[in-house]
């Protein structure tokens, strides 16, 4: 663990993942005055250096996405941050860029860490910088999907059980037009909450008796991102529900857009695509209902109609290429392990067959393998 007395950069955010969401957060954090270091793997960034990233704001008429789940207002006393006009101008931001090796060599303490990698990279990426986290570090994960949060949590706990760990889901739209230009394509909503472990480990201290955990729960409403942050953030105690619902929406939209090679809106407009979309939503709805009954007997996750919600998201983001379609086009690994393969695993645990998801995963793995070979 690095020596905290050397830490003159208490409000510096370190960002893992230089995709569109990582870059959006980096520019917005810079905009409100926080120093930012992008952690990159490239050996070219062996030594820390400064890079410039241009933020292009959304057009005035871009809608807020993310209120589709009925949470536009606070569900637990949380609030949305205001977005002052000057925060939204096109601007060029200076960001530090450094590699895990360079940070480790300099023994740089990390107090604030955002994980915005592809979901399958999150655990490895965290491992590369975990030793630099200070005892009271704040870690926020914003990756798509389910199934890896618990591993992140356990790794953080093993470092220090006073690290604050938040999970988030975002519907912000962003596109990297080049590695120096980030376009904010649509305003969204980001919901953040303290991650609640699925199987508390023996050294996990109950938040009721751990003063540090009490502090972080008590401060959720205004503590995670700076007060003048220009993205809409809602702090919630129902983060698990938000993660599960976003997971099901992503399981419905992302793989089909990659398979059909279509934009989100075309899932609704093209008759054949829509037929596939309805069948997939029906299979996922059965799974959601069973999961909900099993994991939440008081049914606070209930009343979620996947076809309606996923259609709404596909419609509001109609001009977007989903992240999985972009990954497919770029020959990157698809986030299937944390989306539809995770759904199949959930089905196995609940004795629910998921043949449509299984076929979809198999077709996409084949396509992806061929794309990577080409
Ligand atoms: O989250 C998304 C993604 O592409 O990963 C959706 C909501 C489908 C928007 O494109």
Describe what you observe in this structure:
With 374 residues, this protein is an alpha/beta fold. The chain folds into 2 domains: 13-237, Rossmann fold (3-Layer(aba) Sandwich); 241-373, N-(1-d-carboxylethyl)-l-norvaline Dehydrogenase, domain 2. The protein has 13 helices and 11 strands. It has helices at 20-31, 100-105, 122-129, 149-159, 211-218, 220-223, 239-260, 266-269, 271-295, 306-316, 323-329, 340-349, 355-373; strands at residues 13-16, 36-39, 49-56, 91-98, 110-115, 133-141, 164-170, 173-178, 181-186, 190-194, 233-235. Strands 8-9-3-4-2-1-5-6-7-10-11 form an 11-stranded mixed beta sheet, with helices on both faces. It binds ketopantoate. Ketopantoate binds at residues 144, 250, 253-254, 264, 313, 317, 320, 322-323.
Topology, pairings included?
Layout: E1 13-16, H1 20-31, E2 36-39, E3 49-56, E4 91-98, H2 100-105, E5 110-115, H3 122-129, E6 133-141, H4 149-159, E7 164-170, E8 173-178, E9 181-186, E10 190-194, H5 211-218, H6 220-223, E11 233-235, H7 239-260, H8 266-269, H9 271-295, H10 306-316, H11 323-329, H12 340-349, H13 355-373
Parallel strand pairs: 1-2, 1-5, 2-4, 3-9, 5-6, 6-7, 10-11
Antiparallel strand pairs: 3-4, 7-10, 8-9
Ketopantoate binds near residues 144, 253, 264, 313 and 322.
């Amino acid at each position: 663990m690095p020596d905290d007395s050397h830490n003159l950069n208490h409000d510096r955010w370190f960002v893992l993942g230089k995709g569109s969401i990582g870059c959006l957060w980096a520019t917005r954090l810079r905009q409100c005055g926080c120093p930012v270091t992008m952690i990159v793997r490239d050996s070219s960034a062996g030594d820390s250096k400064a890079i410039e990233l241009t933020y292009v704001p959304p057009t005035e008429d871009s809608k807020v996405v993310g209120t589709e789940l009925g949470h536009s207002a606070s569900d637990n006393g949380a609030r949305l941050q205001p977005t002052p006009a000057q925060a939204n101008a096109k601007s060029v931001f200076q960001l530090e860029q450094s590699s895990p090796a360079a940070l480790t060599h300099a023994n740089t303490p990390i107090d604030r860490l955002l994980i915005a990698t592809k979901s399958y990279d999150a655990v490895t990426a965290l491992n590369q910088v975990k030793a630099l986290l200070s005892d009271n570090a704040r870690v926020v994960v914003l990756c798509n999907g389910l199934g890896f949060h618990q591993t992140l949590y356990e790794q953080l706990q093993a470092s220090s059980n006073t690290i604050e760990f938040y999970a988030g889901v975002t519907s912000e739209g962003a596109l990297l037009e080049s590695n120096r230009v980030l376009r904010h394509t649509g305003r969204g909503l980001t919901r953040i909450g303290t991650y609640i472990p699925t199987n508390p480990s023996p050294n996990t201290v109950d938040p009721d008796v751990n003063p540090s955990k009490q502090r972080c729960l008590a401060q959720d409403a205004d503590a995670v991102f700076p007060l003048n942050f220009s993205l809409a953030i809602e702090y919630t105690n129902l983060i698990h529900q938000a993660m599960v619902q976003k997971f099901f929406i992503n399981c419905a939209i992302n793989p089909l857009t990659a398979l059909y090679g279509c934009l989100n809106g075309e899932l609704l407009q093209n008759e054949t695509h829509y037929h596939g979309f309805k069948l997939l939503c029906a299979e996922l709805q059965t799974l959601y209902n069973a999961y909900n009954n099993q994991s939440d007997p008081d049914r606070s996750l209930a009343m979620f109609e996947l076809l309606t919600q996923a259609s709404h998201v596909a419609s509001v983001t109609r001009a977007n290429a989903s992240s999985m379609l972009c990954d497919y086009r770029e020959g990157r690994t698809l986030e299937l392990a944390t989306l539809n393969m995770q759904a199949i695993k959930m089905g196995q645990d609940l004795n629910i067959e998921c043949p449509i998801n299984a076929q979809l995963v198999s077709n996409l793995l084949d396509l992806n393998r061929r794309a990577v070979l080409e």
